[in-house]
Amino acid sequence: MSRADPVFSDLAVRLTTGVALAVAGFGAIWAGGWAFLALTALAVGVMHWELGRLGGLSSTNVVIVAPAAALSIAGALLVAGGAASVAFLALPALLSLGVAATVQPDARASIPVLVAGSLAIMLAGYVALILRDGGGVIWMLWLILSVVVTDICGYFAGRLIGGPKFWPRVSPKKTWSGIVAGWIGAGIVGALFMAPTGTREGLIAVSVLVSMASQLGDISESALKRRAGVKDSSRLLPGHGGLLDRLDGVLGATLILGLVALVTNYPEAPI
Predict the structure, then answer these.
(1) What is the CA radius of gyration of the chain?
(2) Is 152 found in the same domain as 51?
(3) Inside any domain, residue 2
(4) Which of 36, 125, 164, 235 has the highest local Cβ count within 10 Å?
(5) Closest CA relative to residue 101, chosen from 49, 63, 70
(6) Which residues pair with 175 in a beta bridge?
(7) Does some domain include residue 95?
(8) Domain that holds residue 271
(9) Of 135, 169, 190, which residue is a domain's last?
(10) How many domains does the chain have?
(11) How much is the pTM?
């Protein structure tokens, strides 16, 4: 393989950034409590800032950079108090609505995107907090690893195997081989976590569902970026773009997990 081969040209940078994110993320997951809450709140705030950029709001506008992050973090802190605080999930969405409607008239067409994205981010943050508090470290590790393995398997399968594109108009790099490899990888994660979680084979199916949702989250964010005419949600993370670029799959997976929880009392009785 020549040095000019672009297939793995970004791998070193991606791995370095990925390791740093993994250390911070798994450290907060292991510690739990205020450490995990603080990291979740920070992530929610940063993703709202990036969402504002994708919605056409100026990244230098203090009206979106400061209040969106501040209210997002406040919302994350409030929802940690229990189900009675879910109403505060609407705060960032209302802020996005007000900013889009009054600050930048050109961005008013993005109001549905800003509101829907804002609620999705906050709901995912809420589910993550509840999962870590109620399910413990093991279930958070299962969720994150299901998403990470989906991404890794999709990355390598897509580049080594290639083949037909999954949805070239929205996500030109995604192939069917990468999509299916992600499902298989997540299924293996589910199989490995059956014993530690005390569950049965159904966890494999749940893991594949989580994998599909993570891919949908990735594709949805790709659609937002194409709509905005940008490659990345921001440049915060070398090799990965922005935090939304890195956590779009986690958002999708966490949201579907929240829906599963409504039906199965997950994770206490996931199967």
Answers:
(1) 18
(2) no
(3) no
(4) 125
(5) 63
(6) 165
(7) yes
(8) 136-271
(9) 135
(10) 2
(11) 0.79
> CA of 50: how far to CAs of 53, 76, 118, 254, 262, in Å?
5, 17, 11, 19, 29
CA distance 112 to 98: 12
Q: Give the bridge partners for 171, in sequence order.
A: 167
The span from the CA of 43 to the CA of 18, in Å, is 15
- The verdict on whether omega for the bond into residue 267 sits within 30 degrees of 0, i.e. cis, is yes
The answer on 131 and 158 residing in a single domain is no
Q: Tell me: do 120 and 170 sit in the same domain.
A: no
**Residue 87: partners with Cβ closer than 8 Å, 6 or more residues away:** none
Give me 99's structure tokens. 């900013």
Burial environment of residue 126 by CB neighbours within 10 A (0 to 12, 13 to 18, 19 or more): buried
pLDDT for the residue numbered 84: 43
Q: What is the pLDDT along the chain (271 residues), one digit of tens a residue?
A: 444 444 455 667 777 877 888 888 889 999 888 888 888 878 887 887 788 778 776 554 544 444 555 555 555 555 555 544 555 555 555 565 555 555 555 555 666 777 778 778 878 888 888 888 888 899 999 999 999 999 888 888 877 776 667 776 766 677 788 888 899 999 999 999 988 887 888 889 899 999 999 999 988 888 888 887 888 888 888 777 888 888 989 999 999 998 888 777 667 655 4
| Rounded-to-integer distance, Cα 77 and Cα 73, Å | 6
Check whether residue 209 and residue 271 sit in a common domain.
Answer: yes
Instruction: Tell me whether residue 12 is in a domain.
Output: no
- Geometric angle at alpha carbon 107, from 241 and 121, rounded to 5°: 50
Residues 143 and 102 in one domain: no
Same-domain check for residues 67 and 183: no
Answer for the pair 13, 241: CB distance below 8 angstroms, yes or no. no
* Domain stops at, among 135, 159, 190: 135
